[in-house]
Design a protein that fits this description.
This protein is mainly β and 568 residues long. The chain is built from 5 helices and 37 strands. The longest helix is centred in the N-terminal third of the chain and has 8 residues. The N and C termini lie far apart (72 Å).
């Protein structure tokens, strides 16, 4: 192969190969951005040509921290640098253009044996990943979804092309009846880092091998098996519509859920993985559910900016004395608000407010007294109007903030003029997590205690609370979960408790309503670690959703599940 390519001609690096019915091998040379055809019986090169380059528009090439998915950027003359390759016919083959040193076009291409590109998917794979919440923003500065491999097979007498995306952890499925205009059919969730793909059409099966294995991140290397059938696709469970510019509304890392006033409407939020936090409107009347709007949370009137910061301190305090409660200072508050008045918080729970708008809880960051985890924010209870503009911000009492740990506000609900907030775990010196009770009229806090189940996972970890929702008449439903995923998961449960007759300092008595671990296992994929959203619709249906961590050390699946009506 030496000397065949224009790029790095003296250093050929064959990457992948496929063989057609004419006994011709097509081979990719990824770093060389080159393709070679070899007639195997004679061991002769019959054709060789560059894989070429394309111009990409409406993509995200910038990695912000916190992340933002902005499909507004362009790359010109981007080398394809193909990795996997698969014959479609004896005259046509497809490539997965992952890229390496000099390129990566985020696309798949279809070539003829003369080296002509008859189709290129352009930005379609990135946009599909954005639409279903799988876009890996941490790879924006590299190659986005990074198409790794392609596989061709006939299923149901229809020619299919399957594209494995290493970074979005998806398989994109296309009908290539017309290879000059492939038709997108669906996405399939895989493990983390799908690399090998094998079709077994005689058994209506497809297999994908995902390489990443990290027990500490609750990620295991897996084989995923998929069956071709006439049933409706089971995934995705949520997909976004296009915005006014024709681009999919970006979303991921869903946290809390709230039932809307309108039937079939849910609201959700994104956590601190993303900046310029937003409230999402989800229409559940279709399958998959449609994410139809993203409303920015704004400090337009300076309410958050005016939050009193107790014991103002200069930046040296954090390093010199991390136990001081006043380490939440002016600089920390300023970092929560962008110049255009968007906010960068850690929204974990959302609830409809009785007087209109939303209650949102933002989890604090850091543990008082732990130099390795300085306090960069405190836990905040926030009231917004329906347009997402902040109207009120509430801190905890100072004596409570003094024992803050990094596992703070998670769920929120309103009932009878009071707002109830679930703390994820017990704070310093306490045996049980709190349920905070904020009186919206007097602005006083009181607290109940919640008894957690002991941990059960063979991998250890911890157990804590996630979302909270009101059932009326002083009864609440809460998510209790461990921090384990996949085969290590043990506790994913819904409990009910009643506050009637309880006073400040009392411990609630809980009743198991539903163990949802069997239903999570029945999905066929990895059991998600973070069941973080919970809502009860007007008709009694209970929805839960997991947080996919922005596809960072996570396979990216978002499972919005309707569990049906709960027991009264």
């Amino acid at each position: 192969m030496t000397g065949t390519s224009a790029l790095y001609a003296g250093d050929p690096e064959p990457e992948y190969v496929d063989i057609n019915n004419d006994n011709t091998a097509v081979m990719t040379m990824q770093e060389n951005n080159h393709l070679v055809l070899v007639h195997l019986p004679s061991a002769k090169i019959t054709a060789q040509f560059t894989a070429g380059a394309i111009d990409l528009t409406d993509i995200d090439t910038t990695e912000e921290d916190p992340a933002r998915i902005l499909l507004t950027e362009t790359q010109t003359k981007r080398l394809r640098e193909p990795d996997g390759v698969s014959w479609i016919t004896n005259k046509l083959f497809a490539t997965a253009n992952e890229g390496d040193m000099d390129g990566g076009s985020r696309s798949f291409s279809i070539f003829d044996t003369d080296g002509q590109v008859i189709f290129d998917s352009g930005n379609a794979l990135d946009h599909q990943a954005v639409r279903v919440g799988h876009y890996p923003d941490a790879r924006s500065g590299n190659k986005g979804t990074e198409p790794e491999n392609v596989e061709f097979a006939n299923f149901g007498n229809i020619p299919h092309l399957i594209v494995a995306e290493e970074r979005s952890n998806l398989l994109a499925v296309y009908d290539v009846t017309d290879p000059r205009a492939p038709t997108f059919k669906q996405v399939l969730p895989a493990g983390v880092g799908p690399e090998g793909v094998l079709a077994i059409p005689s058994r209506n099966l497809l297999v994908a091998a995902s390489e990443v294995d990290s027990r500490g991140d609750a990620v295991r290397s897996v084989l995923n098996l998929y069956r071709y059938s006439s049933e409706p696709a089971r995934y995705p469970t949520i997909e976004s519509i296009d915005d006014a510019d024709g681009r999919p509304i970006p979303w991921s890392a869903l946290s809390g859920l709230a039932a809307g006033d309108a039937a079939n409407t849910l609201y959700s939020i994104e956590d601190s993985f993303y900046g310029s936090n937003r409230i999402f409107t989800i229409d559940t009347s279709t399958k998959p559910a449609k994410l139809i709007a993203a409303t920015p949370i704004m400090d337009s009137n300076g309410v958050l900016a005016a939050l009193p910061v107790a014991g103002l301190a200069d930046a040296s305090v954090k390093a010199d004395d991390p136990s001081r409660i006043d380490v939440f200072d002016e600089a920390d508050l300023a970092a929560m608000i962008t110049p255009d008045k968007h906010v960068n918080l850690d929204p974990e729970g959302i609830a409809m407010a009785a007087d209109g708008g939303f209650w949102i809880v933002s989890e604090g960051a850091g543990t008082v007294g732990d130099a390795s985890r300085p306090v960069n924010s405190v836990n905040l209870l926030i009231k917004t109007n329906h347009q997402g503009v902040i109207e009120r911000v509430v801190r905890l009492p100072a004596e409570v903030e003094k024992i803050q740990v990094r596992f703070g506000f998670e769920g929120v609900a309103e009932h009878a003029g009071k707002v109830y907030v679930a703390f994820q775990r017990a704070w310093t010196g306490e045996a049980e997590p709190r349920i905070g009770v904020f009186d919206t009229v007097t602005a006083d806090w009181s607290f109940l205690r919640y008894p957690l189940d002991p941990r059960e996972s063979p991998n250890g970890g911890w157990v804590g609370l996630s979302d909270l929702t009101s059932l009326g008449d002083g009864r609440f439903l809460v998510v209790e979960r461990d921090n384990q995923g996949g085969p290590d998961a043990r506790i994913k449960r819904l409990y009910r408790f009643d506050i009637q007759g309880l006073i400040d300092g009392d411990t609630v008595a809980k009743t198991l309503v539903r163990d949802i671990l069997p239903e999570l296992k029945a999905l066929g994929g990895p059991v998600p670690e973070k069941i973080e959203g919970l809502a009860v619709m007007a008709n009694g249906d209970v929805f839960v959703v997991n947080d996919n961590d922005g596809v960072d050390d996570n396979n990216g699946e978002t499972q919005l599940m309707n569990l049906g009506a709960i027991q009264p």
